[in-house]
Amino acid sequence: MAGRTGAQRPNGATQGKICQFKLVLLGESAVGKSSLVLRFVKGQFHEYQESTIGAAFLTQTVCLDDTTVKFEIWDTAGQERYHSLAPMYYRGAQAAIVVYDITNQDTFGRAKNWVKELQRQASPNIVIALAGNKSDLAQKRMVEYEEAQAYAEENSLLFMETSAKTAMNVNDIFLAIAKKLPKNEGGGPAPSRPGGVNLNSQQTQQSEGGCCK
Amino acid sequence: MDEEEGGDKMKVGVQGTSADIGDNNINTDCDDPMSTGDISVQMEHVETLNSKIDDNQQTDGSGVTKKTSAALPDSKDSKLCGWLHITTNKGPLKINRLRWFAYSDTNSRLYFYRNPHDFLPLGEIDISHATFYFDPSKTDKPGGFEIRSENKDYYLEAPDRAVMMFWLQELQKRRRSHATQRNSDFLPYKSQRPSSIGGLSQAKSRAGAPDQCETKKDNSEIPEIPTSENMGVRRASLDEWRSSSGKPSLLTQSSLKSDIQDVMSNIKKQSNQGRRSVISSSPSPSAEDWTLLDQPSRQRTSGDLSPPIRSGKIVTAFNKLKVGVRRSKQIDEPVCQPGVCFKCKQLQNEVCVLQEEQSSTEDELLAHREIIRLHQKEVDYLRRELQTRFAETEQSEDGLHQMLKERDKHIVELEYCLTSANEEKAHALQKQRMLEEEVKSLKDQVTMLQHMLQAKDEVIVKLTNDMYELEKNNNDPHSSPKPSSPTIRKSVVFDTDTRELEKLRDMCSAYELQHKFLTKEILELNELRQRDNEQHKHLSMENAKLEAKYLQTKSKYLYLLQEMKQPVRDGESSSQTIISQLLTDAIQSDDDLDEQEHFLTSSGQEYDIYGFVKKYDFESGEFDPVTLEAQKLERKSTEMSDKAKRQDEELSHQVKWENYMMAQAGKPLVRSQELKAMVRSGVPHEYKEVVWKECSNFHIGADRDKLGPHYYKQLVSKSNSSSHDPSSKQIELDLLRTLPNNRHYATVDSPGICKLRNVLLAYSWHNPSIGYCQGMNRIAAIILLFLSEEEAFWCLVAIIDYIMPADYYSKTMLAAQADQRVLKDLIQEKLPRVASHLEQYSVDLSLFTFNWFLTVFVDNIPIETFLRIWDAFLFEGSKVLFRFAVAFFKYVEEDIMRKKNTLELNHFMRIMGEKITDVQRVAQIAFHTVNPFPMRGIASKRQFYLLQVKGELAELDKIRKDLYSKHSLTKTHEDFSDDDLLD
Ligand SMILES: Nc1nc2c(ncn2[C@@H]2O[C@H](COP(=O)(O)OP(=O)(O)OP(=O)(O)O)[C@@H](O)[C@H]2O)c(=O)[nH]1
Ligand SMILES: [Mg+2]
């Protein structure tokens, strides 16, 4: 909607720095996580998107003023039994989008649980965005905008209602995350597996990763 | 289509129409002492023959040849096989052996084996370019025939002529249908979208099934040779096909036709002698005589024709006649006492008849000669035409070289065939001359006989007088038999003559059959030639087009090079625009090529045989349209060349399976090493259903019987009645998200969706502790492509409950996670380079391989590749998953080593599955390169990591419980823990 598709500019074409961030999508099954990613990465929408098993990995680059931000996106599976795998994916992520379906109250409840888990288990500085997807189905709305907005403010989350179908707010939410991410010092590469994320160690790792140069 | 041989419909027809000629002929086939080899197999053969003959008789009965289409071997289930003798020339030695022959429809080859259960054929004969011939003069080998193929002669021998004719006709038919198929494979705009597959629609797809109308047309042009000798009908059918085949090459056909008609009507007159109506209208006095003679015996003959007449299909009208004559003699002997004069008269009559016979035979011979002369003309014409064709062909271009060679070979074969036919004709002529002489000598004999008869008559008159006087003197009854003795002697002499005549007639009819066969052979060959010509023309057109395109591209290319060579001075923009113009052109012309390919190989269709949308533009991280296009082209070309390369290999593999399944004949598969090797090299499409079914039965074993035959139906009805199944919500969400780009699962009303729902719901009721796990949907959907709904359910049960370790799809997915760690260890062991490279860039391969294991590789992997894995997986078990996972990494090892950063590596891992296109290569790696691959090691590793993962999960679960209970603000808390709790 904002008319700004993820710019595809080759590495190094811009004068600014390049940052690389790991972003994870979480949320109940069929809320539209994969659809959001597909819209963001390829600008497409499929009526029937293959359900995600395990997780899917995609990348997309956006340009922000003088910075190029590379997103390393992990789109996870929504079914509950896959939740035991989730830590593998959100470990070391600098950003997360927790998605719910505005036509389904249950998915909002599940989203809240994810927010809690992320705040507790993921990197301390993780940027979390809440996306109320399928906003094109406003006539079937079950989760009020205000309710979600209030919850997001309370937990200092980014919040937008999106629609992968109409592309509304899809790029915007990714851009908003990109803006909020610390670009001068943070945004290093996914700082490897062992243990949780230690912010202090990030600065020393800067050189080996391909982040802001 | 009504092309099933010996179908129910046909049997009814036989009962109705052919009671008189009936099955007797066939019975004699079995009893024939000539028949060789295994009796039971022989019987099988005769059965096919039986239905074949029935088929023909039905045709005869209606007098129209429309039924011939029934014999098209389009129905693949009619397998042509049987025992035959084959004579091979080993130097001066001729070795005659009994072999099992089986015709393979796939490549139109006749394979022969030592026995029917053998896997490897002893040899093969290419039927697609073969010509057939048999020589009726070889009476010692009535079933002998020749197949000439690829410049080699094969002498085969069937137990008798009937079987031989059956073989020949079947082979002709199959050669024709093969040619049709070959033709239709290439004919333009023939979209060959196969109807469907396996469980989704019962109709088996057969790529390249010939167009229906076309087939019909073909058949009307070349009819079967009626094997039973009902002359009238044969003439009718002959007329029909004569008039229906409007071939320009048959210039002489109308005159030929009338000639044949003449001959036929001659014959017909005789064969119909039993019918008064015909005779009364016939001007021939001899016919009148015949009726007189035949009157008493007629009722008899028609009454008990049932005893076996004579073997073979040549149940000629002559034969009937012969029986009649023989019978009349038998009857006459005891009855002869009342009037000796009558006897004489009768004899005289017989002689007259004989004379008549002779003259008619003479006529016949003349007609034959005429026919042969005409044939020669025709053959000459054909040869001329062939020669001109040949000259034409020579002018063709370079690019057609390959094809030309083939065509040349074919033409030479044709020529050879024609000359041999010619020789045959000369031979026949000679025979006829001989026959003529024989007839002449016979005539002499008859005059001699007449003289003798006269003399005897006188004697008889004298004797009668004597007898009369004697009788008058004393009433002694014993004196009467006396004069009968010379009569008997005479009849003996007469008998040998008739036998001679019969033999000659037999010969005649045999030659007639041969003549007809050769005529048909010529027609067939002609047609084949025409087809090839068409194909040739089409291909040259195609070639010209492609060449034009190529030249165009080349010119553009040169133009570009030229442009680039010139030092750019006067502004870069001009060459820049030219290049961009050329690039867009390249992409454009590529689209054209797509269309071209569409009707060139008809593989440009929307869906593959499994119903998947064909796609070539894989995700590759390339956004430049030109590079994308180039990649797409490269992929296409490798696919095409791979296909061409593997064709032979695949064919022999196919034949191997065909034989195995034929030998198996519905028995449960035995898990032998041999079968294992065959499964590892892939189960052909048409046998997947059987093999997969057998494999799942093997894994489930007796448990299935314990659950009863209605278990599945009960589960389905249970799941339909109660909608509150916790799994059903997720299943509904996933049905259309399972294989969205397969047409069987594309929309709500696609046939697969309903089956998929039933199978998944049934499973969730069958095993509530697992219920439904995302990933199972893909497994079930793939099974349903090949198996029926119920069998698919059992196969799913076999995979999840038996083949996969416990806890793979359960609420915690413990075993699935543990297996990823096992795999990591194995990669470390087998491919240390890759492992350390991934380690270096901190890429966790298990994030990508998890899906492979959970979905049995139905995850962005080419379908041919994962189907091969499935074959082995279902046969051998879950170890195969590790084999292939390791093989995948080995396959792309170099690609991985080239990637030098985390992002690139992660991205490559994501699309890695798509790269595994060479099934043969990856299977080779999985089953050989990675060896040794002991199951024990895997089992112990599984054990170890299972415990490890269990511990970690318990910890995570504790944290989560804490987390949610502390801030129990949300209402949805319950159902979350409910699903995720560890027991
Ligand atoms: N109307 C509407 N439908 C949407 C929208 N986004 C997704 N969908 C539909 O919702 C369904 C589920 O979308 P997915 O993207 O597969 O959901 P997911 O969250 O990835 O699901 P899992 O892979 O099972 O975790 C699909 O059929 C989409 O077509 C949206 O913005 N509007
Ligand atoms: Mg998804």
Features:
heterodimer, A: 213 residues, alpha/beta, Rossmann fold, six-stranded mixed sheet, 6 helices, 6 strands, 23% strand, disordered N terminus, B: 983 residues, mainly alpha, seven-stranded antiparallel sheet, 7 strands, 67% helix, elongated, binds guanosine-5'-triphosphate, binds magnesium ion, coiled coil (chain B), small GTPase binding (chain B)
CATH class of chain A: Alpha Beta
CATH topology of chain A: Rossmann fold
Percent of residues of chain B in helical segments?
55-70%
- Oligomeric assembly: heterodimer
Biggest interface between chains: A-B, 46 and 55 residues
Bound molecules: guanosine-5'-triphosphate, magnesium ion
Q: How far apart lie the N and C ends of chain A? A: 31 Å
Mean pLDDT of chain B: 72
- Kindly state the percentage of residues in helix of chain A: 25-40%
Strand composition percent of chain A: 15-25%
Query: How many structural domains does the protein architecture of chain A include?
Result: 1
Radius of gyration based on Cα positions of chain B: 39 Å
| CATH evolutionary superfamily of chain A | P-loop containing nucleotide triphosphate hydrolases
Profile the largest sheet of chain A: 6 strands, mixed
GO biological process, one term (chain A): protein transport
Keywords (chain A): Endosome, GTP-binding, Hydrolase, Lipoprotein, Nucleotide-binding, Prenylation, Protein transport, Transport
Protein name (chain A): small monomeric GTPase
Family (chain A): Belongs to the small GTPase superfamily. Rab family.
